[in-house]
Write a structure and sequence with these properties.
Elements: H1 12-23, H2 32-36, E1 47-51, E2 60-64, H3 89-93, H4 97-103, E3 107-114, E4 120-130, E5 139-148
Antiparallel strand pairs: 1-2, 1-5, 3-4, 4-5
Length: about 150
């Protein structure tokens, strides 16, 4: 991670939330394009986008950042969220997507889990509602990062 100026938020999920808030215009929920237009720097690789096609259907991965490549989860693009294993960072990061869908507010969550490889992982994640350019509540934007528990 790059050195941050003194007083600047270091936690990725909080920095992404600040970008989300800056992208809000007259509406409470910003568009996906407006959030992604920001200079997201090191956050970019930790992002994923879920496309919500209906209230009944599972969201589908529309984008999965390179930070998840070591887990093999970047191949999930086009797949439903249930295809992500609970023993991966991405699987843990998406597990509360339905709460964000219902409440239509950003939610951040952290915790620990045992990874596929047996490591104990500490993680922090965020999921935020975003609209498409037509104004439909069609996407969920999320990000997650982690470290090994010492």
């Amino acid at each position: 991670m790059q050195d941050q100026p003194q007083g600047m938020e270091r936690r990725m999920v909080h920095r992404l939330l600040m970008h989300w808030r800056k992208a809000q215009e007259s509406d409470e929920t910003p568009t996906l394009d407006n959030v992604l237009a920001a200079d997201l720097d090191d956050i970019e690789t930790c992002l994923y986008v879920l496309e919500v096609t209906s209230d009944e259907a599972e969201p589908v991965f529309e984008r999965v950042g390179q930070a998840f490549a070591d887990e093999g989860t970047t191949a999930l693009v086009g797949q439903p969220v249930s295809a992500a294993s609970d023993t991966t960072l991405l699987g843990q990061a998406i597990r509360y997507y339905s709460k964000v869908q219902i409440k239509q507010i950003p939610i951040t969550l952290g915790g620990e889990f045992t990874h596929d490889n047996g490591d104990i992982i500490l993680y922090r994640s965020i999921i935020m509602p975003v609209r498409d350019n037509d104004g439909d509540d069609r996407y969920l934007l999320g990000a997650a990062n982690c470290k090994l528990k010492e």
